[in-house]
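In this section we walk through a basic example: taking a raw amino acid sequence and producing a predicted 3D structure, encoded as discrete structure tokens. The instruction is simple. Fold the sequence below.
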Amino acid sequence: MSQQRTRPGHGPRAAEKPKDFKKAIRKIAVYMSRYKCRLLLMLVCAIAGTVFTIVGPRILGKATTELFNGLVARVQGTGSIDFGRIGQILLTVLCLYLVSACFSFVQGLVMTGISNDVSYNLRKDISEKISRIPMKYFEKRPYGEVLSRVTNDVDTLQMGLNQSITQLITSVTLLIGVFFMMLSINVWMTLCALVILPAAMVIIGKVMSHSQKFFRGQQKYLGEVNGQVEEIYAGHQVVKAFNREEAAIREFERSNRMLYETGWKSQFFSGIMMPVMQFVGNLGYVMVALLGGFLVIRRSIEVGDIQSFFQYIRSFTQPIQQIAQITNLLQSSAAASERVFEFLEEPEEDAGPEHPVPAEGLAGNVEFDHVAFGYNPDQIIIRDFSERVREGQKIAIVGPTGAGKTTMVKLLMRFYDVNSGAIRVDGHDIREFRRSELRKMFGMVLQDTWLFNGTILENIRYGRLDATDEEVMAAARAAHAHKFIMQQPEGYQTVLNEETTNISQGQKQLLTIARAILADNRILILDEATSSVDTRTEVLIQQAMDRLMQGRTSFIIAHRLSTIRNADMILYMKDGDVAEQGTHEELLARGGAYAALYNSQFERVTV
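The resulting token sequence is shown next.
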């Protein structure tokens, strides 16, 4: 779906507060607890596969010892090489590695399924969350930022989970298992190998302390870049019209540069970890090799044990290096999860009363009772608004920009709640309804059209999904949209592209009006509904609207005063209050602010 609205002026957000790595990991763990059975299976398979791998070098060392002893005996003339015995040992090792591979395959399959389920459910939770978050959340943020959480952050988290959890389990198991196998071979050589651990831990700790902020910054600026690209692309005509290409490029370059810097630094720390750890591991390898050679000369251990120990010490440094690498993945995953869970934990609209008033059978009487409201508590824009609207009346709301006209509609549909006072429908406070039931009573046609990528038929049917094709066409005729629809290449089956640029702005408005006609709601809200149509079409639309509004309570927000002359009541708003009210003729006769505004639109310029 595509939102047919641009929101210029949204720059990068202020820097986020420092995040808690441990808290983020705990949230991931709690979220994944729903998969505990599969996680347990994955854990068993990962440990079992690693254990079979660990045992292999020790048994393989016996083959080396057998071969060495056979060669010595042959040289001394006291025996020969027992190839049968060596073959049995090698076959045993092969079986162990095959079993290990099977466990690893199952473990990888299970973990892939878990990570995909996590990303699927996170996207589902985000999608459901969007419908429960108050409107003010989206009015303060660019669309691309929310989009980034659904796409980039969830993808990063999925990749991190898939790669880090199993690798962490196998690395820890390998580290512990190899440690005990090394102890079983020789204690002194094991202690020599452990010398590298403090250095490794210091390196890991230092890198983690520096890299976390860069991984978090990388996710943050990625969201900003996505938001800017989405907004600039959606509003490219406005950008070009005001010659703001260079400014837009500079703003994008700033965010892109910050993304580059944080991405470069995070990848630098990620890349430097492995070679440093390999260097530390090689130092330990050299020390063990010298000690092992000394012990063989003294015949304290077998040659095969030396070979096994060399394999184990290489395996011992490998999980340390892997754990170091995993920390970078965990940093990235934690940064992404913080943003995802931050969104999921945003305050929601209240669920509604425990015993809501049913919306069926309501007539459409609306009362505003001393309503006061401000988007910020210290900036009240509607101070004391009271008005009674009877069923079936057409109420026009006019006034200068910022007077509170659209705000009244937002309050009526409970996109926002009043600070004080009450709005009632048929005597019931709208807070006594469930929001979803309340909004079923309203049909809306906005100045900002909203159509999605689909056929014209589907876009009109969005007003009432169970409508037949004939009902859709009847609504299109009533909105005077049928003629231009039939002129399209495939009529009602014409597919609107993603940005709906294959029809004009006026035609989009006609389709949204047809959608409202099809919905057949008790209360109508028309916010500059004819602002994008020509004068001739406006007359036709007005005729259709007059038929549509018969018997329905209608609120009409308009700047073109010619469209509201037949309204039952006109409210002229100024600074959040009703400055004048009455019919068109009464207000003109009064000669006040409404009359001045009306005359300014229709006065003739004399030359």
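Looking at the output, two observations stand out. The longest helix spans residues 245-297. DSSP finds 19 helices and twelve strands in the chain. In the next section we compare this with other chains.
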